[in-house]
């Protein structure tokens, strides 16, 4: 939701004549006595006016009873004057509980001046901050432009923040629904640069609303919710990284053991092809070759290519690693890597190496 900056101008009503405050004394000279036609403002009436001035808990702050000017802005707007943040406290002293944090880029509405403390409302946080931590009055008006910024509001449950302007870029952090983050520059190809804490990155514009507005304080409850969400997102990322590392380790182990299978099989390159044969030295056909190589590693495979199509687990060809079994219509070989297989080819070529995609692949099976 767009937040409109509004200023106020001061309207003070001048009371002509004397005002009698309850409990005070005033001496009237003879020549000052009113005539019979003069109406005297009753004390009770004056007190009623004064009570109206205190209706909104702004004691000693008549200058805060402000009205909208022709620019639609208000003069009771204040801006933070701190390097990082200042605690918003429940009472005007340093020992009281804090209710929120007013950060260095935040705007607030002044509710009350109280000696060295000022009562403010900023976002959902309300309480007292040291007067020196704010720009108010003319200073606030002078600095207002510095606090206007573009903010991105997250519109999905979880949004990835990446280190580039595309979905293949690395994820640097994640943000959650309704959270707001500073947009630090111009959009590039529909991606906005944002700053999440100390982390800079890019978010896709379809999943955020970007509006020019002010930043506001963060209440203690909002901070706790944000931190919990960030920790949950961090834990999820760590879990994902751990899972990916485990999967990579499994693939590496499979590749390592599969490479041992390939190294063993390659010893028999150049040996003869024999229909129905299973001897790696005297001759084997395609399925007999694969069956005998895996038998050396204690793995029993079916005798025919058709039966081999259901062994182990299926994998995509793009994910094949050395040692995987590549099956075709009536043929089988062992994947070597780099797009090649070692196989018992035919009587003319014997056991040799050829392209894994020399003919359409039916399935790739992993048995390790």
Considering the chains and any ligands shown, give keywords for the structure:
3 domains; five-stranded antiparallel sheet; 5 helices; 368 residues; alpha+beta; SH3 type barrels; rod-shaped; 22% helix; disordered N terminus; endopeptidase fold (from Nostoc punctiforme)
Order of helices and strands: EHEEEEEEEEHEEEEEEEEHEEHHEEEEEE
Helical fraction = 10-25%
Most strands sheet: 6 strands, antiparallel
CATH architecture of the largest domain: Roll
Shape: rod-shaped
Q: Please identify the structural class as seen in this structure.
A: alpha+beta
Radius of gyration from CA coordinates? 40 Å
Helix count? 5
- Largest sheet, spatial ordering of strands: 20-25-21-22-23-24
Give a description of the structure:
The structure is a single chain. The protein has three domains: 8-147, SH3 Domains (SH3 type barrels, Roll), CATH 2.30.30; 149-216, SH3 Domains (SH3 type barrels), CATH 2.30.30.40; 264-366, Alpha-Beta Complex (endopeptidase fold (from Nostoc punctiforme)). It is built from five helices and 25 strands. The chain has helices at residues 43-53, 137-147, 220-265, 286-295, 305-308, and strands spanning 8-10, 66-68, 77-80, 85-89, 98-103, 107-114, 117-122, 125-130, 134-135, 149-154, 158-162, 171-176, 180-183, 191-196, 199-204, 208-213, 218-219, 278-279, 283-284, 313-315, 325-328, 331-337, 340-346, 350-355, 363-366. A hairpin with a 7-residue loop joins strand 13 (180-183) and strand 14. The protein is rod-shaped, with a radius of gyration of 40 Å. Residues 1-35 and 38-73 have low confidence and may be disordered.
